[in-house]
Specification:
The chain is α+β, with helices and mostly antiparallel strands and 206 residues long. It has helices at 2-20, 32-35, 39-45, 59-70, 120-124, 150-171, 183-189, and strands at 22-24, 72-74, 79-80, 91-97, 100-105, 110-115, 135-142, 174-175, 196-205. The longest helix is centred in the C-terminal third of the chain and has 22 residues, at 150-171. The radius of gyration is 18 Å and the shape is globular.
Length: 206
C-alpha cells in the first residue's frame, strides 16, 4: 500500500512539473479603450519607448500582444495576423521574462518553457535599459521555411515587429524594436538550430 501511495505522490509531482512547463493563455480580449483607436490614431501615436515601469504584464495583456504579433486570425486556414513570404509562417516568438524563456504557440495560444533562465540581460546585451522591461520578445526566423533566404526571414520579422508596435500603442504599452542582442547566448539557451536565426527583439512594458 505504501509503495502505491509513494508512486501516486511521484506521479502528482511529475504532472505538476509538466504543467509548469506550459501556460495556456486566455483568449485575446479587447476593452473599449483599445477598440476606440482607429488605425490612423495608432499610426499617429506610434513611437519607440526605452523606459519601463517595474510592473509585470498580465497574462491577458501578453496574450493580446502575442496574438497581434503573429497569432491566428483565420482559424479555418490557420493563417496569421502578419504577412509571411509564401505563407511560411517562419517567425517564432520567444517570451523572455524572470521565470524563464517561453515559445509562443499561435495555434494553441499557449507558451511552452524552453529555458528556466532569465535571458533578458542576454537580449539587452550592452543596452541595459532593455533588461528592465518585464518582457522581451525575441523574433526568430526559421529560414529553412523560406528556402534558406535570410532576407525573407528578416522581412517577415519586420512585419511582426510592426504589429507589436501597433498593438502596444493601442494598449498603452511601451516598446522599441532592437537588433542588438547576444546572439550566441540566445541560440544556445533557446536551443535554436542552424537555420533558426534571431532577427529582432522587443522589450515590452508599461
Amino acid at each position: 500500500m505504501k509503495k502505491y501511495f509513494a508512486l501516486a505522490i511521484v506521479a502528482l509531482f511529475s504532472m505538476s512539473a509538466v504543467a509548469q512547463q506550459k501556460i495556456q493563455l486566455p483568449a485575446p480580449q479587447w476593452d473599449k479603450k483599445v477598440n476606440k483607436f482607429s488605425l490612423v490614431d495608432v499610426l499617429m501615436q506610434r513611437q519607440s519607448e526605452r523606459e519601463y515601469a517595474d510592473v509585470d504584464l498580465t497574462d491577458q495583456e501578453l496574450s493580446n500582444v502575442l496574438w497581434a504579433a503573429c497569432g491566428i486570425n483565420r482559424p479555418a486556414s490557420k493563417k496569421i495576423t502578419a504577412p509571411s513570404a509564401i505563407n511560411a509562417q517562419d517567425i517564432m516568438v520567444f517570451v523572455c521574462r524572470a521565470d524563464g524563456a517561453w515559445l509562443y504557440n499561435a495555434v494553441e495560444n499557449s507558451l511552452t518553457r524552453v529555458s528556466a533562465l532569465d535571458l533578458r540581460k542576454a537580449v539587452a546585451s550592452r543596452q541595459e535599459f532593455s533588461a528592465k522591461a518585464p518582457v522581451s520578445l525575441v523574433l526568430v526566423s526559421d529560414i529553412s521555411k523560406v528556402h534558406n533566404k535570410r532576407d525573407l526571414g528578416a522581412m517577415d520579422a519586420g512585419y511582426v515587429s510592426e504589429n507589436i508596435y501597433l498593438i502596444c500603442t493601442a494598449m498603452g504599452l511601451k516598446t522599441v524594436a532592437r537588433a542588438t542582442m547576444e546572439h550566441d547566448a540566445l541560440v544556445r539557451e533557446l536551443h535554436l538550430s542552424d537555420t533558426q536565426i534571431p532577427m529582432l527583439n522587443h522589450p515590452v512594458g508599461k
